[in-house]
Amino acid sequence: MQLKSKTGRKIRKDSFEANHNMEAIFEHLKYLYIDCQLSTNQIPEKMLQDYNIFISSSKCYELIEKMGILRKKSEAISLATSTLDYSISLLSEEMAGIIEGMLIGDATINVNNKTKVGRLSISGSHQEFIQYCNRLLTPYQPSSPRYDRGDGKKGGTGTWSTTTKFHPDFYKMYKKWYIPQKDVPKNLNFTSMFMLLWYLGDGSLSSRALENSIALYFSTNSFSRKALVENIIPSFEKLGFFVSRITKDNRLFIKTESIGDLLKYMGGKSPVECYSYKFDIDEWRFLKTMKQASVELDIDYQRLASWVKTGIVNHSRSPGGKKVLFTEQEFNELKRRLDCGELSRVKGRKSLRQKSTIVKKPILRNPNEGEDEYINRVVKFYISQGFPYKDYSESKKQKKWTRLRASQYIYPDSDVLKWRKHGLPLADSFHPHIYELNRKNKISPYSLFNNEKMLKECLLRHKAKDGTMTAPKLLSAVCSDARSPRLNNFSPSLARDIYNYYCKDGYRVIDPCAGFSGRLLGASVSKRKISYCGIDPSIRTYSGLVKTVEFLKTVNPCFECHINNGCAEVELEKYRDNYFDFCFTSPPYFNIEEYDLEKTQSYLKFNTYEKWKDGFLRKIILEVFRVLKAGGICAINIGKFNTHDIAEDIISLSLDAGFHLIEKKAISFPVYGFVNSKSRERLEQMPILMK
């Protein structure tokens, strides 16, 4: 008699069902699968040991499916073609980084949507690299490397490839990377292994020894601009690597100063010989540059450059002597000399990071002391003390910030806004170098202070002979002298009120010309919950902005802010369209104010006003228009200097870009002495534009 199953299917006499007591088999399987929590790969061995019953993995799975006791839907696929246990995830944090490092490079995932499983395939031109990937993917039992001759013709380019077994882990990765379309997902963990596999798969290094140049790229042509700007570039910057996007072909370019650190982060050498050339750069490129040393040690870049030039500090140089570098030993020696105060004793060179203690009490004039004698005594005393920087303790800074936040809010609804000093000393304290900068054809307050003759003349003009000279009075005198007017800084209290008037909670603010922390501090004390993003090309100013951000983290941890060091016309390209809600800035007045001598300064990059207007102003306005949301507001504070009406040019360029002029406001600034006028105030325009 022919046996039949419950479904009517004929059962062969030599089948498993015909030769075993199925009720007992079902009972054994249920015990091992449910009570012992064994996988369908472990059960056959246990059945053979304990019950002397031979059963295959596929038959084991088939019977468990009949009982309806599957632990996961992922086991719905037949195990006849796989030896992986689908009920167990192998996706550890380390393994996820390996898989994603391959996916962002040359790997792909094929899936079965019905059974919710997938497998990973990776190919390359080098067998050694595919074998290396095989070892990393061992838990998923990849196939042996296969060679494909391509078109099959003689001389055709062939590729090596490998493919893993199917597993639900790859289906999870597929949903993350391919749905709704293949692009770089958010919240990637840029581990060293992730970066290494990406670089081996899709990175390139170009080095020209004769030209002393080097370039490192990541091929991101197939990814969207949004993914690069929002996901990838911020992740690089979070690790301390400076990158930029090449707009022409959407590739990532690693800036030269970060190449050595990035290669170190990836292990410093290739794990496979075939890609060793991608790590083949000269050792000197791993050394610290003068820029890196000045930022890490918190010293003025120009001061460090003068020490290098005069041989005060030990240093190395790149081949050809073009670039100043510091070995680890030279850097540690420089740090030690700064910490112990040795460099501050070098004649004529006092470190900015070790300011003198300024006497705050007034220097009184003796009864029988003449005017000249008193002035001579005051000048010699303060020159011996050093320049009277605004140097506040942390507690004093916190008090000043708290007062700024608690002060009265004045809504800027009038056409002329009154400039206010409140909060300005706090902003200046983060940028001591502001007193070393000068206007065109003028000298800096710092230079005047160190000239004994000029300082005497300055104090006499400011009626210092009354006999009550103090350090703040002296600072005010040298900053308002007609020969050494200080550079402007935006009033934090005025900036605060402008944010309050034009912003709403949740607004993102962009400041392409961040300057000396005035608008940054104003944003931090605004009653609106806004986030601030600032850009500035000067290394010294950027360092001061970073110090401001570090201070704000202690007094207002919820305030979101980010500072970029670079040229605004370039850095703005990194942000996606319609990202910001409000733009508030005050661009440089062409070459009237010399913020620094670095080549990144706009007046040095564009040496005529027409070039500056077209290459700097127009580019910034176009980029701001792009990154602002529809209905977003742009407020630009600028003045009229010499024959150039920069405010009118800005309005004209803005209208051409697509902005609408909705208001024409002005700010009433005090006159420091650099304008030959009897008036104590001057007006600067602030057009209000809407996208």
Description:
The chain is elongated. α25 packs across α26. The strands form eight sheets. The chain has an eight-stranded mixed sheet, sandwiched between helices. The protein is of the alpha+beta class and 691 residues long. The protein has six domains: 3-81, no CATH class; 93-182, Endonuclease I-creI; 197-285, Roll (Endonuclease I-creI); 287-345, Multidrug-efflux Transporter Regulator, Chain: A, Domain 2; 355-386 and 445-483, no CATH class; 492-690, Rossmann fold, CATH 3.40.50.150. The chain is built from 26 helices and 27 strands. A hairpin with a 4-residue loop joins β9 (243-246) and β10 (251-254).
What would a concise description of this structure say?
By secondary structure, the protein is of the alpha+beta class.
For this entry, give a set of tags.
4-stranded antiparallel β-sheet, 17% strand, 8-stranded mixed β-sheet, 691 residues, 6 domains, elongated, single chain, disordered N terminus, Endonuclease I-creI, alpha+beta
Determine the N-to-C terminus distance: 87 Å
CATH fold-level name of the largest domain: Rossmann fold
CATH class of the largest domain: Alpha Beta
Counting DSSP E segments of at least 2 residues, the number of strands comes to 27
Side-by-side strand order of the widest sheet? 15-26-27-23-21-18-19-20
Largest sheet report: 8 strands, mixed
**Shape type:** elongated
By CATH, the superfamily of the largest domain comes out as Vaccinia Virus protein VP39
CATH architecture level-2 label of the largest domain: 3-Layer(aba) Sandwich
List unreliable stretches of 5+ residues.
Answer: 1-7, 73-82, 152-156, 345-359
Protein structure class: alpha+beta
Tally of alpha and pi helices: 26
Query: Over the alpha carbons, how many angstroms does the gyration radius reach?
Result: 35 Å
Mean pLDDT comes to 81
Helix content: 25-40%
Strand content: 15-25%
Give the domain tally.
Answer: 6
